[in-house]
Amino acid sequence: MRWSGGGQWVCPRTQHKVPTHVSESDGRTGAGVARGGLRGDRFSRSRGHPAFRGFRAEGSWTLASYAGFFESELNRTVFWRTLKLGAIVTAVSAVIGYATAYSIVTLPPTARGRMIGLVVMPLMISPVARTYAWIVILGRTGFVNETIVWLGLSDTPIRFLFTETAVFIGLLQLFLPLMILSLISALENMPKDAVPAARVLGANWLQVFVKVILPLTKEGLVIGGTLVFTGSLTAYITPAILGGSKVLMLETLLYQRVTVANDFASASIIAMILMVMSFSANLLLKRLATARNKR
Amino acid sequence: MVETGNSVERLAKLEARKDDPEIDMAVMSTHDALSAARKGITQSIDVSRLSNYDKLYDIAKDPLGDNLAVGYTFYATSIAYRADEVTIESWADLFQDKLKGRVAFPNVSTNQGPPALYMVGKAIGDDAADLKAAIGEVAKNKDDIVTFYERSSQVAQLMQQEEILAAPIGRFAWGAYSKMGFDMAWATLKEGQTGGMNVMILTKGAKNEDLAYEFMDFWLSTEIQTKLAEALVDSPANSEVKVSDEIAENLTYGAETVESLQLLDPAVILDNRESWLSEWNAQIGQ
């Protein structure tokens, strides 16, 4: 046993046996706290593997950095914006997805194959190219604005670029095919007679959708929803190009922290938050699906 | 072995291998070089071993002090604008009525950002190093600024699409603008133009010091600097380089231009960068 500078007893033998992070919190805290402390630069000071730095402060495990992350108004704005856009994109793609998928499934086989091909095609084009196309389409002199001005909806072109609307449109186009494909395979597995049977029994279309189609295709909705939501959260190129620094999302904020501030600790916090959001979304969707099932 | 990546990435790599450097010399922006110097990654350069040293413009000779770095290129930053649509004579003209919703500004995180803010500060009569006044001025106009750009190629595209009519840019990007078919102009501003410099550094404990010196000298030679200038890679820091007017148009070239550059002191950048970023994020970032 010896007296360490930090003011606590340290057993040299245990120090050898315990894993590094424990020995750090035992033996090295004295010096660590004195030098590092929880100052403005707390992120870059904490040691350990980058993936775990977010949990580390003063050499022990803590969630303080996460609380610190949400103390910043900018970070909160970015978090809510990411969550909001992810949710809206998922919801809208579910609505469009059902309509599209149902119309495709009811087509004869050849036409169905062609339509699925059309749905898949955008997935084969690089997201960079797809996103850049939107810059041209949504620009002042682009197709959308020329139509708006021509129709007399507005005298001057509307600014779409670098707004949340642009990011929403870009993300929706990027991930809608995933939702459509998931729903197509779910609808194909649905018994062919289910819808006519419900109609014969007097259900209107809304009832058919809510009571028959939705429960029978919920698996596809959960998969599609998770893919779209996770994709929207973690997309980098689209928010970077269509939103820029005025519409920061968690992913673009992460990139900024790493490249500009060399701040891997905040970046790992953001990455963790993104992962938690993805898993929660998946669990939530599954929960919703089972709850509906029980009814 | 050649390591690539942007200035910050290079700095991170050097830092990671501090105790056993595998890199002998590196090039980076002045403030990143100063940051490396402060971390003890670099050593002073023995300029007597560089036969081309005396040919350099004065501002390139010892930008960090103690011969910790030698400048090999620099660029001017001014405002590129559509001369047929607007007139720009001051950095404050970026916020004129005609440019509402038609102007881009560099993000504070880019190399163009802080120098541009510094000049905006000068234009509104407050060029304190904290850039508070300038950031405040930009924040006041943020809804009228189309975007805070992060890549110079992005600005070129917005200009081409007529989304914007003016933006502060580095001279190295000018080539694309003059070819757009618009009446583009490089502003001569009453506060002057700003810019940045890139420098070479020698790592502490470099294993191939002789080769590093040889390479630096080669890079600074009139022949190589001329070739780099002619290929429009980097503007020459070697004052003996002569290029045609056509080439010079796309560069930051000539003694007069070089002397007119109002560069931000790298120490000022380094010491204030964090506070600029938080000021920017607080006022503009959301």
How would you describe this structure to a colleague?
Chain A: It comes from Nitratireductor aquibiodomus RA22. Chain A: One of its GO terms (biological process) is transmembrane transport. The complex is a heterodimer of chains A (295) and B (286). Chain A is 74% helix and 3% strand. In chain A, helix 7 packs antiparallel against helix 10. With 295 residues, chain A is mainly α. Chain B is of the alpha+beta class. Chain B folds into two domains: 118 residues, Periplasmic binding protein-like II (D-Maltodextrin-Binding Protein, domain 2), CATH 3.40.190.10; 133 residues, 3-Layer(aba) Sandwich (D-Maltodextrin-Binding Protein, domain 2). Chain B is 38% helix and 16% strand. Chain B is built from twelve helices and eight strands. In chain B, strands 1, 2, 3, 6, 7 and 8 form a six-stranded antiparallel sheet that branches. The chains are: A mainly alpha (295), B alpha+beta (286). At the A-B interface, helix 6 of A face helix 1, strand 5, helix 6 and helix 12 of B.
Text of the CATH class of chain A:
Mainly Alpha
CATH class of the largest domain in chain B: Alpha Beta
Helical content of chain B, roughly?
25-40%
Number of helices of chain A: 15
**How many strand elements of chain B?**
8
Query: How does the major sheet of chain B shape up?
Result: 6 strands, antiparallel
Regions of chain B with pLDDT < 50 over 5+ consecutive residues? none
Name of the CATH homologous superfamily of chain A: MetI-like
Low-confidence residue ranges of chain A: 1-47
Strand content of chain A: under 5%
Structural class of chain A: mainly alpha
Give the helix/strand class of chain B: alpha+beta
- Estimate the mean pLDDT confidence of chain A: 80
CATH topology name of the largest domain in chain B: D-Maltodextrin-Binding Protein, domain 2
